[in-house]
Amino acid sequence: MTDFLSTYGFLIVTMIQAGLLGLSLYFPLQAGQLSLASPGFYALGGYVAAIMLTNPAFAGLRDALGNGVFVLTWVVAAVLSGLLGLAVGVPALRLRGIYLALATIAFVEILRVVSLNLSFTGGAVGIFGIPQSFGFQDRWQYIFIFGPLLILTLLFARQLERSRVGRALRAIREDELAADAMGVPPTQYKVLAFVIGAVLAGIVGAMSAPFLNTWNAKQGTFDASIAILAFVLIGGSRNIWGPVVGGALLTAIPEVLRFLADWRLVINGLVLVVASLYLPQGIVGALERLRRAPPPQRPASPPPLPTAEVKP
Amino acid sequence: MELSQFVQNLMNGLAIGSVYAIFALGYTLVFSILGIINFAHGAVFTLGAYFTYTLVVGQFENNGLLKGINLFPNGSPFSGQPLTFALATLLGAIGAGLVAVLIERLAFRPMRSRGADPLLALVSSLGVALVIVNLIQLLVGAEIYNFPSDAYGDTPPALSFVLGGKVVIIRTVQVIIFAVSLVMLAILGYVIGRTKIGKALRAVAESPSTASLLGISVDRFILITFFLSGFLGGLAGTLVGTAFGVAGPYFGVVYGLKGLAVIVLGGLGSIPGAVLGGLVIGLAEAFVPADYSAYKDAVAFALLFIILLVRPQGLLGKNAIQKV
Predict the structure, then answer these.
(1) Scanning A147, B12, B210, B218, which has its CA 20 to 30 A from the CA of A259?
(2) Mind telling me how many Å the CA of A13 is from chain B's nearest CA?
(3) Which residues of chain B neighbour A229 with C-beta distances below 8 Å?
C-alpha cells in the first residue's frame, strides 16, 4: 500500500487537485457564466501561501502558530481571492459568453505579468523551498488535505444545487431575461457563483504551493485556463461529477501515455479533439444517457448552424 | 518625450501593429462566419514561419526527428535574394492556409454538422493547437531557430535621419512588413467588398441558413474563410520571424493571445475593427516607457479589459440588440 502510494501518490493528489480546479470553474458555469479566471485565483492563493510560509516578514507569525499557519494560509488565500473575485466579478459579469471568457483571460494574463515583475513574488524565478504542510514526509500525504477539501466541495455543491440559490443559478443559465422578469436578480447570483469559484481556486492554490514546493508565474497561465475548461467540458458540465472525472482523467492520461514518450502530448491534443467531437455532453453526461435508456431519438432535421450574432 | 523618440516609437508601433492587424484578421474572419474563436490560429502562425524556414534553409540542426535531413542538397533555391525569399514567404503562407482548411475539415465541420455546443469548438481547436505545437517540437526540436533574415537583414536601413540631434532609424524589414500588410489589407478589402466571393462570404456571415437557401454552398465558403484565415496567420508568422530573427514551437502563443485582445478591442467580427485594434495595440506597446518595458505584454490585456468594461462591443463593433 505504501509502495503504491509513494509511486502513484503524487499523481493521485494532482488528479484531485485538477478535479477541484474543474469545480472552481463549474460554479460560475452553473449560472451559465464561462469564466476562465480560475488560474488567476489559483496563482494568487499559491503566492499567498508561498509568501506567508517563506518570507522573513512572517517569521514571528510562523513561530507563534506552528502548524496552524498552514490553515491560516488557506483562510487568507480564500479571503483575498474572494475579495479580488468580487472586485473583478462585479464589473466583468456584465459581460456574457465569449466576452466574459476573454475578459477573464485578460485578467489572468495581467496577474501573470504583474507577478512576474514584483520583487516579493520572486520575479521570474518565483519562490523556492516552501515548507511541507504539517511536516508531511511524503507527497501522497497531501491526500489528507486535498481529499477532505474535495469531499466538502462536492457536498457544498450538492447542497447549493438543491437550495433556492441553486435553482436561481439554473434559471439564470437557462434564460437570464426570464429569470430577471421572475424576480431573480441575475447580477447578484452571478457574482456569488463567481466568488465561490474564486475562493475555491484560491484555497487550492494555497494548498498546492507547499505540495509543489515552489511557486512561480507559470502556475497561472492561459494554458491552465484552457486545461481547466477542458476538465469541465470533457468530464461533463451539467453534473458535479463532471469536472472531477474530467480533471482526474485528463491529468492521468499524459501519465498513462508515458510509454509513448515524446508523442504523448500530441496524443493528448488528439484526445481533446476526439472527446469534444464525440462526447458533446462530456463523459458523465454520456454515462447518464446510457443509464437512462431508452436511447435518445434522432432529431428529424439537423440543428441550425450557429450564427455569428454578437452578444456583449 | 523627444520628437526623435516619438517618431521612432511611432514607426516601430506601426510596423508591429500592422502584423497584429493581419494576424487578427484571420481570427475575426472565422469568428464572423462561424461565431467561434479558433484557438489554433496561434499555432498556424507558428507553422507559417516554419514552412518558410524549411523552404529557405531546408535543413534542421536541432534535436527533432528531422535532424540531419537536408531537403536541398544543392542549396535551397529560395535563399539568398529578396525575391526568392518573398516567394518562400508566399508558399509558407499558402501552406498555413491549407493546414487551416484541414483543421476545419477535421475538427470543426464534424462538430458543426451535429450542432454541438460552440464551447466545445474552443476545446477542440485547443486540442488542435496542442497537436501542431508538439508535432513541430517532435519533428524539428524544441529549441529556438535563428530565422533567416539574410534577405533583408544585411540591407542598410531603409531610412535614417536626424531629428532634434538624435538619429531615427527605420529598418528595411519594418518598411516591408508595413507595406506587405497594407497590400494584404487592400486585397482583402477588395475581395470581400467587391467580388462575388466576398458577397457570398458576407451572406454566409449574416445568416448561414438563409445563404444556403439562396444556393450558396456554405461549407465551401467556410473552407475559403479558413484558407484566408490560415494564409493571413501564416504570413504574419513569417513576417514576425523575419523582423525578430527567431522562431520556436511556442512562438505563436503570445501572438495568439494578443490577437484575441486585438479583435475584441476593434469589435469581434469586424474587419476594419481588427485593423484598428492591431494598430492601437502595436502603438500602445511601442510607447511603453523603457523603465516599464517588463509590463509591455500586459498592455494588450489591460486595453482589452478596459474596453470590455467601457464598450463591450469594441471600438468599431455593432451595438448588438439583445434577443429576448
Answers:
(1) A147
(2) 24
(3) 119, 122-123
Which among A265, A269, A280 has the least Cβ separation from residue B117? A280
Subunit contact A107:B305, Cβ cutoff 8 A: yes
Q: Which of B110, B127, B305 is closest, CB to CB, to A270?
A: B127
pLDDT, mean over chain B: 85
User: What digits encode the pLDDT tens for the residues B72-119?
Assistant: 887 777 777 778 888 999 999 999 999 999 999 988 888 887 777 777
Task: Give the number of other Cβ atoms within 10 Å of residue A129's Cβ.
Answer: 9
- Nearest chain A residue to B296, by CA: A113
Per-residue pLDDT tens digits for A18-58: 999 999 999 999 998 889 999 999 999 999 999 999 998 99
Confirm if B114 and B66 have CB atoms less than 8 A apart. no
Contact between B11 and B174 (Cβ < 8 Å):
yes
Residues 6+ apart with CB under 8 A from B68: B59, B60
Nearest CA-CA partner of B122 in A39, A98, A241, A304: A98
Cβ atoms of A105 and B126 within 8 Å: the answer is no
B3-310: CATH number: 1.10.3470
How far is Cα A261 from Cα A265, in angstroms, rounded to an integer? 9
Give the Cα separation of B44 and A249 in Å (integer).
28
- pTM attached to this predicted model: 0.86
Measured distance CA(B67)–CA(A104) in Å, rounded: 41
Cis geometry, peptide bond prior to residue A294 (ω within 30 degrees of 0): yes
- C-alpha cell, A238: 451539467
A236 CB-near residues (< 8 Å, 6+ apart): A242, A243, A245, A246, A281, A282, A283, A284, A285, A286, A288
Q: How confident is the model at residue B40 (pLDDT cuts 50, 70, 90)?
A: very high
- The answer to whether A311 contacts B322, with C-beta atoms less than 8 Å apart, is yes
Which residues from B are below 8 Å from A107, CB to CB? 301, 305
pLDDT digits (tens, 9 = 90+) for A201-238: 999 999 999 999 999 988 888 878 888 888 898 898 88
Contact B120 A226 (CB under 8 A): no
Residue type, A158: R
CA nearest to A124 within chain B: B294
Among B112, B123, B268, the residue with its CB nearest the CB of A305 is B112
Distance CA B239, CA B180 (A): 9
Asked if A258 contacts A176 with a C-beta cutoff of 8 angstroms, the reply is no
ipTM for the complex shown: 0.83
CA–CA min distance A100, chain B (Å): 9
Mean pLDDT to the nearest integer, B130-137: 90
Phi, psi of B247 (to 5 degrees): -155, 145
Chain B residue numbers touching A311 (CB-CB < 8 A): 320, 322-323
Q: B-contacting residues of A 40-69, CB under 8 Å?
A: none
Question: How far is the C-alpha of A237 from the C-alpha of A234, rounded, in Å?
Answer: 8
Integer CA distances (angstroms), B280 to B15, B68, B134, in order = 12, 43, 32
Closest Cα partner for A172 from A182, A158, A159, A162?
A: A182
